[in-house]
Specification:
Blueprint (H helix, E strand, L loop, with lengths): L1 H7 L15 E3 L6 E3 L12 H14 L16 E3 L4 E3 L1 H5 L8 E2 L1 H18 L2 H89 L1
Antiparallel strand pairs: 1-2, 3-4, 3-5
């Protein structure tokens, strides 16, 4: 390990007289014997095989990004700056996000994380006072509008109440006039109808009398 290799470079426990040793070291992978460079452990060549194994293990254990709902099995590995949402490669090339500016997930996460603090920083004391004044003004405007609506409602109720009284009186007057007209019709036609019926009876009596004489 790196700690053990570093200890080979230390001649004394006194850090002030620390100096490197040129000692032969056997590679645990290929078994080749090499001298430790003067620059120390950091100057040794990288174990490519071990690094590949570590990277593969990290990739296998890394959380998989969610899949795109529009394009089957395509990972959401990009961030659309314009629409502020995760997209896949097909969304960018042939989908509805074609031509939109994008960012990688890590940078987008950092930017979005910083956005609230930036907004709070921009919201100065003066702007906050303006926002408070605006909220108060809106509340006052709302109260005034509600008062006007209530007043108009009362006026409408009063108008139709008066109108209902007028219509009721007119209805009563028209019904009285119609009742009077009906009485006049009866007065004019009832005597005539009665006289015609009497004539019918007299005629029937004459016909009956004539038949009995014959």
């Amino acid at each position: 390990c790196k700690t053990c290799l570093d200890s080979l470079l230390q001649v004394s426990t006194n850090y002030s007289i620390w100096r490197p040793l040129r000692l032969p070291i056997k590679c645990p992978n290929c078994r080749s014997v090499v001298e430790l460079p003067p620059m120390g452990v950091d100057a040794l060549p990288t174990n490519v095989s071990l690094r590949a194994i570590i990277e593969k293990y990290q990739m296998n254990n890394a959380p998989r990004p969610p899949a795109c709902q529009e394009h089957h099995r395509q990972p959401l590995n990009m961030y659309c700056i314009q629409d502020r949402q995760l997209i896949c490669g097909l969304c960018l090339t042939v989908g509805q996000h074609q031509g939109h500016p994008i960012d990688d997930l890590q940078a987008a996460f950092i930017n979005e994380k910083q956005t609230p603090s930036l907004l709070l920083a921009r919201l100065s004391e003066q702007r906050w006072a303006q926002v408070c004044d605006l909220a108060e003004q809106l509340e006052q405007d709302k109260a005034r509008c509600e008062a006007l609506v209530r007043q108009d409602k009362q006026e409408v109720d009063q108008f139709f109440l008066v109108l209902e009284g007028i219509l009721a009186r007119k209805k009563h007057a028209y019904l009285e006039a119609l009742d009077k007209a009906a009485a006049e019709v009866s007065l004019a036609y009832d005597p005539l109808i009665h006289r015609v019926k009497e004539l019918q009876v007299e005629q029937l009596d004459l016909v009956s009398l004539g038949s009995s004489v014959e």
